[in-house]
Amino acid sequence: MEQKIAIIIGAGPAGLTAAYELLEKTAIKPVIFELSSDIGGLSKTVRYKGNRMDIGPHRFFSKSERVMNWWQKMLPLQGKPARDDIILKRKLALSTEENAPDPETSDRVMLFRNRLSRIFFLGSFFDYPIRLKWSTLKNLGVQKILRIGASYINSKLIPIKFEKSLEDFFINRFGKELYQIFFKDYTEKVWGVPCSRIKPEWGRQRIKGLSIGKAIGHSLSSSFHKDSSFDQKKTETSFIEHFLYPKLGAGQMWEEVARQIVAKGGEIYTESEVIEIIRSGKQVTGVGVRNNITDLKTKYDCDYVFSSMPVKNLVQSMIPEAPSSVQEVANGLMYRDFIIIGMLLKRLKRTDETKTPTINRLLPDNWIYIQEKAVKLGRVTIFNNWSPYLVKDPDTVWLGLEYFCNEGDELWNKPDAEFIAFAIDEIALIEIIDKEDVLDATVVRMKKAYPAYFGAYEDFQVIRDFTDEIENLFLVGRNGMHRYNNTDHSMLTAMLAVENIIKGIPSKDNIWQVNAEDDYHEQV
User: Fold this and answer.
1) Which of 272, 432, 427, 245 has its CA nearest to residue 340?
2) Segments making up each domain of the chain, as ranges
3) Which of 173, 208, 408, 426 is surrounded by the most beta carbons within 10 Å?
4) Is CATH 1.10.1740 correct for 133-223?
């Protein structure tokens, strides 16, 4: 019999997971078409003069044991201390497997990383999630603490009955005062619209397990006992203490998966844009692909299609055209775009007031959320703390300065040199660096990084009903489903899609349930 072919659109976590699972569990041959020249999608790692930078780093942590094992099959856990572990004499969970890799001599390895994220607000650092501790009380002051407590009690006694917006979601869980201090401005910086215009589904998917009650409970319990277990199954995801991370960046994982896919007989084509989804009845029969370099267009027949391309583009590519009602919703879907500045420095101006040991007087954070209204800067990543091997010169500091924007707006259109100068001014203004310590910088732009929960999103079911009827089309991943999935959720959607093919399950409900039902991903 002629071998069946699955066309996979996008070489990000969802597309690559689908291809690997097909090769491992079926006789179906995956053929991946990737629009860009890179592997990894939103999880790729960019190289710059010997330094490596993620498009916003990704913690490799999941409540799904299946996903955790899958990752470690690709890149095994370290068996010996990494460079910074040795210097700081850290106690950490090392693999006990025979021949577990040594990060100092092997690149194919996962590092065990401690987690610390904080909010920078009013010139001070606050733990994220917020913890009940003396520094928090001191930084906020008695009056703010009393107002936070009163508004939280009010939200519990008189909750908003029908949550129509993200603002309602936040107020019900944290009270109006805490929402306005720690959630409102940063969230609106990310999305560019008021929280009152964003659907509450974003909160339910991203921080559904976080609340003041759980924050207080975790703060009290962690004072006496920390969950040092490897899987942290008893710890709410927002409060995890550690995670895994590839030695050479998040993109290393997906480059390794891509290598294995090709070795097993799959095909991957970059600089290849899928411009046509050709349908006949309830089946996709082929796709039209344009090569970005040669401009040559080629038609490929297929038996299955896995799409992680933006839903808007998917619907626009349909031949024959999708119904007008579906097109109308698709055209109204909105996205938020992303720019990251990789900035190399001699040192940081701001030093740490915690007792966390660091190298070269670094701040100990993985991420710092910038809540200050005076700057457009959204978040700062300290790549040294993710992996010391991301930085060419260990005596330098390698930062990622993250900005949220819309393609074509003032930020997006700034020339690189102008944007770098702008970013230096902003981070110097909040006194995290001195300008004279900047050694180099680079700019990376990423379109459609965040599918938005406003615009035509409230009518998304119209699109889902249409695509679900196409029997051999599977929407997977973040942009493929227009859902703000984490990496593990994106992978699980691909895994379930492959299982549905194997088991002959026509419904796609189980795919859509990932990251929608409470703890679904923990049970898969």
Assistant:
1) 427
2) 5-39+253-333+456-523, 133-223
3) 173
4) no
